[in-house]
Write a structure and sequence with these properties.
19% strand; 19 strands; three-stranded antiparallel beta sheet; single chain; 15 helices; Spore Coat Polysaccharide Biosynthesis Protein SpsA, Chain A
Length: 435
Amino acid sequence: MTKPLDPEVVRRLETCGQAHLVEHARTLAPDVAESFVRKALEQPWDELRKAFSAPDRGTTPVLRPPRVLTLRRQDSEGGLRGRLAKLGEGLIAGGRVATLLLAGGQGSRLGFDGPKGEYVLGPGEDRSLYAIQAERVGAASRRAGHPVELIVLVSEGTEAATRAAFERGQAAWGLDGGQVRFLCQRRLPALDAEGRAVIGKPGRLAMAPDGHGGALGALVRSGLLDELADRGVDVLTTYQVDNPLALPLDPVMLGWMVERRAQVVGKAVKRLPDEKVGLYARTVQGSHLIVEYSEFPGGRMPEELTMGSIALHGFGVQWLKRLFDGGYALPYHRAFKKVPYLAEDGRTIRPEAPNAYKLEQFIFDVIPEAERVEVHEVAREREFAPVKNAEGVDSPETARALVAAEARRWYEAAGREPPDPVALSPLDMERAPPA
């Protein structure tokens, strides 16, 4: 390049331990170099350096089972579900609940090129994961008598396609035009073993989304968390796009949160043997948390911890606001991954073994900060049908079977003959003629 770099730019990058980016910029054409340097300076290097140098969590602390609203209690205590549902319905009807759909991921693990939410689960071509999730929110909105705000977390790679999908489908899914908001999570540089940013292509850093925990930071940076609090929204529920049986606006869960004055509530199912799922637990000091299966030595989980998270939570909005206004930040987790990089000869190398670290935040890491956390046990077959793998366990095949079984329950409860094939569609049930 012929145009020299600004000395202040050079100093800032060198101070951050990223001097190699300066050297790379000097090999680029002036316009490309300017864009590359600007992108590099936008990165939160102090934050990343601190996260990269932080010690590992160490040994897993002594853990106890969490407090749980068990299915047994819900079934045996007469009137409990009805009382809680009434409280939750009042919360929704009063405009005091919003929901956040975590949909930043791609469908590559399913062999699908596009946002995972656009994956068609079936049986019809209109049964995408987005459609199923959106119809649930639409149905809850009609019961409440007003639109419940749906916030959709996207990533840089899924935003355009997701916006287009909702623009095409939201009317058919029963959503109002202004009911849906989009929130984009950050992308962060991958780092090599020395904490230096990986260059993926000439003039481009190797970047990766900051994990589903990035949703909370995005809420803060966008001002949306403040807006929700100012509008009187008390609870924000969060859930994953790849669980078509998720009930993010469950009145019973919300009612339990109200009755217990909880800052956090999470749904859980009894874990299966060898199931790779995060477990709810409580420390000896009383804090609740979710521990990933990988954090236990040899992956062996204590038998007394039986409540597996289904990644559906309710968070008190005012509590979140106080927490982040006080300077709280979610911790980062380092994941050693295979990251394509630019070789000295100008070729992009796709390594066969992990070579760099991606930094992610997990939304459940905020839970130990809460003074009151409640776990709500639900029936696995009715609320947990994850679509994680192309085949086998937690695949589209297993999810379709669970979804079809739940849809049949709906028709049978309404005294109607289920169609064949049967689809999970609140709209179809509402449009069906009376029994």
